[in-house]
Amino acid sequence: MIRKASLLFAGVLVGAVAVSTLSQLPLRVSGAANAAASDTYRQLNLFGDVFERVRSDYVEVPDDAQLIESAINGMLTSLDPHSSYMSPKTFRDMQVQTRGEFGGLGIEVTMEDGLVKVVSPIDDTPAHKAGVLAGDLITHIDGEQVQGLSLNEAVEKMRGPVNTDIAITVRREGRAEPLEIKITRDVIRIRSVRWREEGDVGYIRVTQFNEQTFDGIQKAVEELSGKIGKSELKGYIIDLRNNPGGLLDQAIAVSDAFLDRGEIVSTRGRNADETQRYNARAGDLTSGKPVIVLVNGGSASASEIVAGALQDHRRATVLGTRSFGKGSVQTIIPLGANGAIRLTTARYYTPSGASIQAKGIIPDIEVLQELPEDMQGRGETKGEAGLRGHLEAEGKDEAEKESSGSQAYVPADPKDDKQLALALDLLRGIQVNSAFPPIAGERASVPN
């Protein structure tokens, strides 16, 4: 989950960096503090010594700026899979992407074991149409090994002029041989919310959380209730499957759209005074119509905030498979003309006080999809807990509950979609389940 960059300039993001002048430092420093500072300076001197030795003795003349950038990125990526350095160009691209339009293939990616891992292909993009799947590991880009590249460097290689071709080689679970996929780059215009009538049910698909998402939800509810008719409308299905997340403020706004009151999410940083709580305002866009939220192993971050808030408040029934388990918040910190850093600054918690980090949202009703023959043994993502260097679940007992992964497959034909079919049957009363409709107040410790 990425916090909206523009908010940073207003100083309201969790984990905003505070800069102290020397005059603000205490006059007396304890011996332990002195020792710690001295050790830090020794380590910095070590870095300087190595840097100078590389500059003077490496077999070829290195690029000083590239050395520094690689060192910074190495420091950040050693913290967790979601912290990284962004060059000025990458930072600009990120800002464009959160506005809902950017150039590329149309995949959300992270780094795993030195390779680029696909978190989710974005609907109706070149990568999605070419058959890229969640969980694919990209090993080569146009024949060049990904191993040794940073995530940003790999992303840069996958971007390029519109209508140019690129070949990626992927390692896919269940396949003995690597798979080469050819994709034609295009302008990726993210319509983050799509909707359609499913007879007497409103179906709303949210593909990611960008600046347009809440407006899309408003428009979807308005149009669906108008076309179906408020009296005939049985309820809504909010499909968050394979939604990799996005902006925190949009996740809060979407949750608020279905809630009348209570906490939506809280974020807690390293220090207790950094805790922030976000609450719903009065008013439910759907006037209390039943809601079912669909999630799977590709539902991450902002998606999990929405699912967790609606589940904890018993406003919606969550159906599908366990979500990805990314329960951390990344703050984008601009560095002037030098780009920005994406730094993990907090964990987030659902209204009941639960952290889903490395565990995910457990659906009220678990439904597995039937995999076609050529997908047997695949269609599953390892989730956050499968990423090297991930933040562990809080506490030893919680760490033992880390998720081992979850199915992330969604059939291309809605007729083959078991999760969607059950959601429709529940809303229409054709099938019954004790988890639907949810019983208000049943879930413990939900603040109001």
Notes on the structure:
Belongs to the peptidase S41A family. Residues 375-414 are annotated as: Disordered. This is C-terminal processing peptidase subfamily. By secondary structure, the protein is α+β, with helices and mostly antiparallel strands. It folds into 2 domains: 101-189, PDZ domain (Pdz3 Domain, Roll); 193-428, 2-enoyl-CoA Hydratase, Chain A, domain 1 (Alpha-Beta Complex). Helices cover 28% and strands 23% of the residues. The two termini are 25 Å apart. Residues 3-29 and 444-448 have low confidence and may be disordered.
Short structural description:
The chain is an alpha+beta fold and 448 residues long. 28% of the residues lie in helices and 23% in strands.
Spatial separation of the terminal alpha carbons: 25 Å
Number of strands: 21
Sheet of most strands: 6 strands, antiparallel
Please identify which CATH superfamily of the largest domain we are dealing with.
2-enoyl-CoA Hydratase, Chain A, domain 1
Q: Unreliable segments (pLDDT under 50, ≥5 consecutive)?
A: 3-29, 444-448
CATH topology of the largest domain: 2-enoyl-CoA Hydratase, Chain A, domain 1
GO biological process, one term: proteolysis
Family: Belongs to the peptidase S41A family.
Region (Disordered): 375-414
Domain PDZ: 91-159
